[in-house]
Structure to design on (263 residues):
């Protein structure tokens, strides 16, 4: 872990450690399935399919925009605008169910009336579309040392920069295989998945540290206590506790180049 002074330390991120109340240390589960299909300029940015949220796809995005998924509005100010992925999911559900209801397909299954299911799907799809229409906007303002999150121009939360971070999340299947998610998280923020599920820990971690460095925010490993945390912002008045052991060697001092993003 490298702090603002460039030294390394061993950071405890357990419930009694660094993270403030309201931020969970468990793997985030939410509605977000991917990143915007465009990285800047356009007012309408829709979430990509989760199928394409791989470390290779993320590396390509970073080559086109080194501040991805944000855009640099001005020096030390980064902006991300997006819509929930439930917008296209609701639209798809609405169209499919409306088609079934209009043509009477699937109205009977094994001589039982089932028309109510697609009719219910029409209502659910319409509700998902309407509820997903408000545009989200997240601003990282290092000039003021704060972040600001709003929905359709209405402020949801704002706070100090140490409450926003990139982290790895670990999950496993029934066969014991481990999969890693790379997620942009924050206090009262919707988790934004950068890499959906990957078995390539080193590549996913490398990309996560690169993004955190470019955006100048904290990075956390999937372990609660790890040497791989990179803390650039601390809460006001925070000091190193006696239980934090300084790391002797820096493993990640090498400068990252564009060619290093090839995974």
């Amino acid at each position: 872990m490298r702090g603002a002074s460039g030294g390394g330390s061993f950071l405890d991120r357990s419930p009694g450690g660094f993270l403030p109340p309201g931020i969970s240390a468990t793997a985030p589960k939410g509605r977000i399935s991917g990143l915007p299909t465009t990285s800047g300029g356009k007012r309408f940015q829709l979430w990509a399919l989760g199928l394409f949220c791989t470390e290779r796809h993320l590396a390509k995005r970073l080559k086109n925009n080194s501040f991805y998924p944000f855009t640099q509005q001005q020096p030390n100010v980064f902006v991300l605008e997006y819509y929930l992925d439930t917008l296209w999911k609701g639209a798809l559900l609405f169209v499919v169910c409306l088609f079934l209801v209009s043509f009477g397909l699937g109205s009977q299954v094994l001589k039982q009336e089932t028309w109510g299911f697609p009719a219910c799907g029409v209502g659910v799809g319409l509700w998902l579309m309407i509820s997903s229409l408000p545009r989200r906007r997240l601003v990282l303002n290092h000039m003021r040392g704060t972040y600001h999150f709003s929905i359709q121009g209405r402020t949801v939360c704002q706070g100090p920069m140490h409450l926003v971070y990139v982290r790895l999340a670990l999950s496993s299947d029934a066969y014991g295989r481990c999969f890693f998610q790379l997620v942009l998280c924050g206090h009262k923020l919707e988790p934004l998945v950068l890499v959906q599920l990957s078995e390539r820990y080193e590549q996913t971690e490398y990309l996560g540290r690169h993004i955190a460095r470019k955006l100048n925010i904290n990075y956390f490993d999937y372990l609660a206590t790890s040497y791989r945390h990179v803390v650039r912002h601390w809460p006001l008045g925070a000091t190193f506790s006696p239980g934090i052991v300084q790391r002797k060697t820096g493993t990640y001092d090498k400068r990252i180049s564009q060619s290093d993003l090839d995974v």
In short: Helices lie at 55-64, 86-102, 116-132, 201-215.
